[in-house]
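Exercise 7.
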Amino acid sequence: MTHRFYRVADHVFEIVLMQDADEALMPSYVPFALSEKQEPLFRISVDDTFKFEDDLEEIGQFDCGGCNHGVYRTASDGYRFEISNVSDRICAVVETNRDFTENKVALLTDQASDRAFGLNNAIMIVYAFATAAYGTLLIHASVIRNSGKGFLFLGVSGTGKSTHSRLWLNYIPGSDLMNDDNPVVRLLEHQVVVYGSPWSGKTPCYRNIQAPIGAFVRLEQKKENVIRKESTLYAFAHLLSSVSTMKWDREVYNQICSTISGILALIPVYHLGCLPDEAAAKLSYETISGHDD
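Solution. The predicted structure, written as C-alpha cells, is:
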C-alpha cells in the first residue's frame, strides 16, 4: 500500500494505492507531490477489489474530454461515476461520499493506458467537486502566461484553443504555456488566480505554477479576426459551459455559479472570432493585455 500527498492550486489531497505499481500511472502528478504527509481536503483509495452497490439508477452523464461517464446516486447519498474510455468501454468506477471527502476507485482493466485514463479521470472528477466550495473551478481552457498574468482561451473542442496558444508562443514575446487543457482557477480575496495542474490533455504541460488572471477569451472560428468584450450574461454563459459542473447536485452547482459571479466582478471576458494566424494572436494580445503596439 502506497500513500501519496499532492497539492494542486493549494488544495492538498491524498491518493492511497493498494497496488503499488499503479504509482507509475501518475507521472503528471510528480511536480505536485509533497514530501511529507499533510491534512488532505479529500482522499481517494484505489483498489481493484472494491465492491460497489448494484442496480443504481443513472441520473446523468458527465462529459469529460469527449468521453461520457455515467453518474449514479448511491444509497448513502454519494455518487458513482462509471468512467468510459474513447472506445466507450468502462475502465474505472468511482464511488464518493456526499461531500467528496472520501472516495473509492476500482480500475477495471489490465491495460496500462486504460488504467491511467481511468485513474486520471477519477482524480479530476473528485477534485473538481471536492474543491467547489472553496472558490475553485476546474476549467476546460488553454492558458498562456505573459507579463506575469494568465490569459485563458475558452471554447468547445476543435475551436482552436491550443492553436491560439501556439500562436502566442510563436508571435508574442515573453509568452509561456501554463496548461493546455484543464487549468485550475481560484477566486481569492480581491484576486482571481490560475494554476497549472496535472491535467493538460494531449499536451504534456504539467507545471506547478500560478499567475493572476488578466482575461478570459472565448474563441470562435471566423473568416476574419474580430474581438469584443462580452456582456455579463454572455460572459457567465461562456465560463459556465467551460467548467466541470453537476447540474443534478444543486449545492455544488450553486457553489460553482457563485464563484463564476465573483470572478466576473473582477475579470473581463472577451469573444474572439478568428483565423489561425499571426494577426489573430496580435489582435487578442493587444486587446486583452492593454498593450497596443
